[in-house]
Predict the structure.
Amino acid sequence: MAEPAIELYRCSYRYNPDIPALREVSCTIPTGTWVALIGQNGSGKTTLAKMCNGLLRPDEGRVRILGQDIAGQPVSQIAHSVGYLFQNPDHQIFAPTVREELAFGLRNLGFLSAEIERRIEEALALFGLEPYADRPPAMLGYGLRRQVTVASLFALRPPILILDEPTTGLGWGAAQALLDRLAELHQEGHTILLITHDMRLVAERAEWVLVLHEGRLLTEGPPRQIFAQPKMLSRASLSPPPITRLAQRLRSFGMRGDSLTVEEFYREYRALTLKERACS
Amino acid sequence: MSNRFDLYVARSSWLHRLDPRTKLAFVGVSFALLFLSSRLSLLAGYLVVVHLLLRAARIPSDRIRWLWRQMWPLTLLILLLWPIFYPTGQPTLLTLWRVRITLPSLLQGLANALRVNGLAFAVFVLLVSTDQARLVQGLVQLGIPFELGLTLAIALRYLPLLYSVYGTITDAQRARGWRAEQGSLPERLRAHVPTLVALIIAALRLSDTLTLALAARGFRPGHPRTTHRPRRLRRADLLCLAGLSLLLAIMVGLRLGFCAFSCPKMGKLIK
Amino acid sequence: MKPIVSIENLYYAYPPLKVGAEPIPVLKGVSLSLAQGECLALLGPTGAGKSTLCLTLNGIIPHLTGGTFRGEVRVAEHDTREMDPGELSQRVGLVFQDPKSQLFNMTVEDEVAFGPESLALPPGEIEARIDEALKTMGISDLRHRSPLELSGGQKQRVALAAILAMRPEVLVLDEPTASLDPAGKRSVLEAMRHLRERTQMAILWVTQDVDKVPLLADRVAVLGQGKILLNGKPAEVFGQAEKLRDLGLALPRMRQLAIYFNEREESGYTWLTVEEAACDLGEDTGG
C-alpha cells in the first residue's frame, strides 16, 4: 500500500492574530485520488492548499507529503513532489517566449537540458501551443495565457498537482479540454487537488470532496454523498449542481436525490417510471 | 490596520471632522514653530500638546507607541552624535581622549531630538486623522489639479494591492522551484527577474483596465467636475485657523524681534 | 419597438503593436440590436471578441483606442463616432469582470459619486443618485465602508451602483460574475433581477454561465469568429446544440438532459431550467 499523497494533522493557521484562517483541519488524501476542495471565498481553501507545498507552514499541526513530514523542507524541494497552479495566470508569466516560460520550472528543478527540451515539446503539443512557442506569453489572450501556465505545470509532471480554479475564465470547450488532460494524468496515478466553485465539474470529475467553511473542514466524502446533503451545503453557501437539484426536487416521486450526471439521472428516473407503470 | 501604507485610524472625533486644509495648516504652523524656536520647554511642550490632541481624538495608544518606536533609533543617534560633533560652549562636562562633551551641546542635541520628533508627530496628527481620499481632496481644494490628486489617490489605493500581488507572484514562482539566489547584487537582481517582470506586467494590465474603468465612469482629464459634498470650512475650522494664524504671527513677530524693544522678556522666551 | 442600440456590420481591429504590421481584426461584420427594457445574453468562446464588442458600445472603441473601425454603432440613433465620449459614457454604462480594478476610491460613497461628479452634476442631485443607486443594489448599509474590505459579490454590486448612478439607458455587463464564488454570483444575479423588475434599462450581459442565462435573459446571441452566429430566444439558440458544441460552448444542463431523454424516447422536451424539467417529469411520474 502506497503512502498517502497528502496528510494534514490538526493544522491551524492565522494570517493575523484575530482571524484564524484554518482551524485544526485533518485529512488524508490517498495517492492517485482526484480531490475537489470547495467552499466560499475566505473559507480557507487557498490556505490549505498553500500548506501542502510549504508556501505556508501551519502554526500548529503537521503536514506530510508522500509520507514525509515537510516541516524542514524548503518550498523549492517540495516542488519536486507538489506542483501548484495559481489562480491568475498573470501572477506567474514573465518569460520572453512561451518556450522559456515552460523551461523555467524544469530548470529550477534541475532537469537535464535534453529532458527539458523533450518535455517542453510534449507540453506544447499537448496544449496546442506549438504555433505560439516563440511568442511572448504575456501578449497572448487570456485563454492562451491560461493554457501556457497549465502547460508549464504539466511539463513538470509532479506526483501531486494542486490547481486553484484553473477553469475560471475559460469557455466550456477549453475547460473540458483542460480537464481531459488532467484526467489523463489522473489515469497515470497522479494525485489531483482542485480548488473550484464549479459544482458541475465537481460532480462529474472528482472522487472525493473536501468542504471548507470558516476555516474548518465542514465535511468530506465522495461527491454523491456530499451533494445529497443540500442543507449542509447551504451552510457553506453552496448548492448542488442542477442535475442533483432536479433529482432532489423529484424526491417525492421516489428519486434518491443524488444523481451526478445526465446518464445516471435518466437511468434512475426511467427505472422508477417503468416500475410504476408495471404496478398500475 | 488594513494596510501598511496607511496610518489612518477611523474615529469620529473633532480632530477627524476638521477640514484637511485646517490640518495641513496645523502641520505648516507646527513646522514654523519647531524651526523658529530652540527652547527646550517649548519643544517639549509642543510634544505634550500633540499627545493631548491625539488623546482627545481617541487615537489608540498603540499607534502612538508605534511612532515612538519608529523614531527611537533616530532620536538616539541625534542625542549621541550631536554633542560629540558639535562641542560648543562651556561648561565642559567630560573629556575623553579627544572628545569633549559640553552642557550646551548636550542641550542642543536634546532640542534637535525633540524637534525631529515634533515634526514627525505634526505629520502624524494629519495622517492618523485624515483618510487619504479627504487628504487628496484637501490638496485639490488648495489648488493642485484634480488629475494630479486623482493620480496620487489611485497610487495610494493600489500600492497595497500591488504589494500583495508581488507576494502572490513570489509564491507562484517559488512553487515552481524558484529561489532568490544568494550572491552578489547583480546575481541577486537577475534572480529576481521572474518576480519583477511578472509584477511589471501585472501592473501594466491593472493600469490598462483602470483606464477603461475611469473612462466608463465618464472621467475625462481637463473637463469640469463637481463634488458631491463640497467641503466648506466650518466654524470649528475657522476658529482653529484663526488660532493657528495668531500663533504664527506671534512666533514670527517674536523671532524677528519686533517686540524686542517693548518686551525683551518675550523675546527671550522664544529664543 | 425602436432599438436603443443598433450595430451594423461592425468591423474592428486594434492598432497593431508593431508599426507597419497588418492589423488583426477582432470583429468582422457584427450586426446586433438591443431594445429598451431587453436583456440580451452574449455568449462566445474565449477570445471571440466579446469584451471588444462591449467597448464599442460606450465609445471607448474607437475614441480611446484608435484602430480600424468600419460599419457603425448607433446608440439612441446617434453614431458613436460622432458622439461626445462624455455623453456616451452617460448613456451606456459598462461594468467589468474584475471588481478590484474598477473600484479606485476609498469609500463606497465616493465610488458611486465619482461618475455623477464627472458629469458635473449639482451636489444635491449627486446625493440623490447615490441614495438611489445604493438602494437599488441593496447596499445602502455599505455606504461608508472601504471597497477594499468587501466580499467579491459586494464589490461587484458597488461597481454596478457606481454605473447606475450615471443613469445609463444601456447597461453592459462584461462577465460580472465570472470571478465570484457561488454566494457572490447569487447576490449579483439577484441584484440584476431586481434591476430588471424596476427599470426599463436595456442590458447586454456577457456570460459563460449558461445555466443562469434562461433565468434572466430575453434573448441570446452567440459571437464566434468575429460575427454573430446565432441570435434568438433562449429556447431557439439552445436548440442549436450541435452548433454550440462546435464552438466550444456549453448547453444549459437541463437542455442536455432534455436531449438525452429525446434521443432515447420520442419525447420533445425543451427544458432550460430545473423548474421546467421538474414540472414535466413530476407530472410524468405522478400521473
